[in-house]
């Protein structure tokens, strides 16, 4: 039976959560010519990206809050139904560890609100905490819970923790109380959802990050132009996880890092293909990537958006240096 024949009825589909899938960042070494058409100027990358995928997780906000003009540029270069997820700056999560950070946090949220309805979840990505940061999970709760209480309820927030011994039913229930999504992550030292002995859906949406083994894959390459690690089994696992959350009515956001398999856009398309084959409501009909080209597109200053240019497969060579990798 064809996959389309297995799709849920319209009435059932209305009860299912929506799914968004994209990459972690929209620039990377190796993408020009492999994902972006050769000769496409960096100022047009986002507009082109938005013709291929309907969401992106912005990584650059982790380093600092972006200028208002940058966020306005993101808004103008994307269609009305595009969604941005964004990392909360590290000064909140790493440097101050939620202490005395209200000013920086409010400034970040305020500038991201320029996106209007295009603003999706904001991710609190924490490092692994050792005892010099917090002696125990209980000590972390002492700063976490007051912070969660102050979160603006009109926005979505997800939280990623890397102390796996802290992940338990109590932690999940704490997030659930404030409608904060537990970020589900694909990393070798963290449990997968099927290994969790508690309900991992903690909000009215779910946030999934396919991160992979950064140290392992960077021993093989730091140019992200092709898949170099076979992860079909893992992708199937995450398709099943997301099908479960969607059936529960939770909107589900999925973001893929280059470190997962070597080329995030290809992984996104494979996820879409397997999802559609599973008979779920269609998740973006995959389109072929542009053919590889030798010439790369270089970094450039922001300019006025050009959606017409982004939609065309321009082939003019560009010899300027490659953009910075954000992941």
Query: What is the H/E order?
Result: HEHEHEHHEHEHEEHHEHH
Separation of the first and last Cα atoms = 40 Å
Structural class: alpha/beta
The amount of beta strand, in percent, is 5-15%
Q: How can the largest sheet be summarized? A: 8 strands, parallel, barrel
Q: What is the average per-residue confidence, as pLDDT, rounded to a whole number? A: 86
- Any idea what the CATH architecture is? Alpha-Beta Barrel
CATH topology: TIM Barrel
Set down the secondary structure blueprint.
Blueprint: H1 10-13, E1 19-24, H2 45-52, E2 55-58, H3 68-76, E3 83-87, H4 90-95, H5 102-112, E4 119-125, H6 137-150, E5 157-160, H7 169-177, E6 181-186, E7 205-210, H8 214-218, H9 232-247, E8 251-256, H10 264-277, H11 307-311
Parallel strand pairs: 1-2, 1-8, 2-3, 3-4, 4-5, 5-6, 6-7, 7-8
Helix pairs in contact: 9-10
Provide structural commentary.
With 327 residues, the chain is α/β, with parallel strands linked by helices. It has one domain (3-311): TIM Barrel (Alpha-Beta Barrel), CATH 3.20.20. 31% of the residues lie in helices and 13% in strands. It has eleven helices and eight strands. The protein has an eight-stranded parallel beta barrel with strand order 1-2-3-4-5-6-7-8. It starts with 9 loop residues before the first helix and ends in a 16-residue tail after the last helix.
